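tokens incoming
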């Protein structure tokens, strides 16, 4: 007799090899008669089968580029995107997980032609063949991107992007030119930043269209006009964000060459931070946004005021130190001048003269007193031997009247001869009447 079917626990994720009677038992359970020499069979679970198929797809096909139209787009709260890519004859399920779609530059829409890059796989729970997308481009942008890359490579080879030709921005611009749409958000952002950071700078707007067929020609004309007039110190070429098509005027070769030949430094602030245009590579400086361009061009007025205040404080402190030094030096010079001044020296000499005069007077008085004392002593000594003193005791001095000769003997006079007699008080004139020997 044939055996019954194997227990359910005998069918596993791994293939089971059934030989001999076991094979016959399985065949019997399926209503099939097998001989004892039947070949070996592998039995897969559904999970195992799907897993094997997924591995075969991922290793056999791998990563591919696929172009098609978006259909049945789903965007659940998880942030993942689920949709189908289809053409006229077929479709394929696609999944783009949140970690990858956050890097996408756009959100796909129904019927949009896209180019997807991803890995062919299988969703095992349902057995659905699918494409796990890692990168997604607008199919219309593919040709634009190729044109962008070709122009970028050609202009780079010509040296339009060379770093050494890029000019430094003025430190303090007197007038800032802005080339943009007069009605867009970019001009409002730029004016707001310039007014906040450096209101002293004048702003001159060169109005141009920034999108559409006439945009590139208008930008070129504005750049050439600003360069010819030379009325600004720096130019801002700017517009707000948009798709690759919206920004395409700034990828125009004419715009690139107008920036290159412009005599004034050009700063670009086009789109968002992730947007790069040919104009950005040619410009002297690229900013991530219009507001960023304004911040790069205008110095921070408040920082300058703070710096000026610091410099003013340092200058005032330095002046105070210098004045104190000069005051000390002046005082020293005044002291030296006063010491060397002729008036001071004259006063010193006058004082010295007074001192010498006093000393002279003292010396004179001292010397005179000595002389007076000596004179008194000599006078007293002379008085002792003076004939006047003798006259005072009643004697007289007789002199001959004729010749004034001193008469000391009576024989010196003849009778009748006149003589003079000097007394202690007064004198007498007399005649010799007689004499005695």
């Amino acid at each position: 007799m044939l055996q019954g079917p194997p227990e359910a626990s005998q069918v596993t994720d791994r293939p089971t090899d059934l030989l001999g009677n076991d094979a016959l038992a399985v065949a019997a359970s399926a209503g099939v008669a097998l001989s004892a020499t039947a070949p070996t069979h592998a039995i897969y679970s559904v999970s195992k089968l799907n897993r094997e198929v997924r591995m075969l797809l991922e290793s056999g096909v791998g990563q591919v580029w696929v172009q098609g139209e978006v259909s049945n787009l789903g965007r659940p709260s998880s942030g993942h995107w689920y949709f189908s890519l289809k053409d006229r004859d077929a479709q394929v399920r696609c999944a783009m997980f949140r970690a990858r779609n956050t890097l996408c530059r756009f959100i796909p829409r129904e019927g949009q032609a896209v180019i997807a890059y991803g890995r062919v796989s299988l969703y095992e729970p349902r057995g659905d063949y699918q494409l796990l997308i890692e990168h997604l481009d607008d199919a219309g942008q593919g040709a634009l991107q190729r044109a962008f890359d070709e122009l970028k490579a050609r202009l780079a080879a010509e040296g339009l992007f060379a770093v050494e030709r890029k000019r430094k921005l003025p430190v303090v611009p007197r007038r800032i030119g802005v080339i943009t749409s007069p009605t867009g958000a970019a001009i409002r952002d730029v004016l707001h930043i310039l007014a906040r950071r450096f209101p002293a700078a004048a702003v001159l707007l060169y109005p141009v269209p920034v999108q559409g067929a006439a945009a590139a020609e208008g930008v070129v004309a504005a750049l050439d006009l600003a360069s010819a007039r030379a009325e600004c110190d720096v130019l801002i070429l700017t517009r707000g964000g948009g798709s690759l098509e919206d920004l395409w005027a700034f990828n125009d070769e004419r715009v690139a060459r107008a920036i290159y030949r412009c005599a004034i430094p050009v700063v670009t602030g086009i789109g968002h931070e992730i947007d790069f245009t040919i104009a950005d590579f040619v410009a002297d400086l690229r900013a991530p946004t219009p507001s960023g361009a304004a911040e790069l061009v205008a110095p921070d007025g408040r920082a300058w005021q703070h710096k000026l205040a610091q410099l003013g404080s340092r200058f005032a402190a330095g002046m105070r130190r210098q004045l104190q030094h000069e005051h000390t030096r002046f005082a020293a010079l005044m002291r030296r001048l006063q010491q060397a001044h002729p008036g001071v020296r004259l006063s010193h000499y006058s004082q010295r003269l007074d001192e010498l005069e006093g000393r002279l007077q003292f010396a004179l008085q001292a010397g005179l007193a000595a002389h007076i004392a000596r004179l008194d002593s000599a006078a007293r000594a002379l008085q002792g031997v003076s004939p006047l003193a003798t006259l005072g005791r009643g004697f007289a001095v007789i002199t001959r009247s004729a010749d004034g000769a001193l008469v000391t003997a009576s024989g010196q006079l003849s009778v009748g001869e006149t003589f003079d007699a000097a007394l202690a008080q007064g004198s007498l004139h007399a005649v010799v009447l007689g004499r005695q020997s």
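note: Residues 1-43 form one domain.
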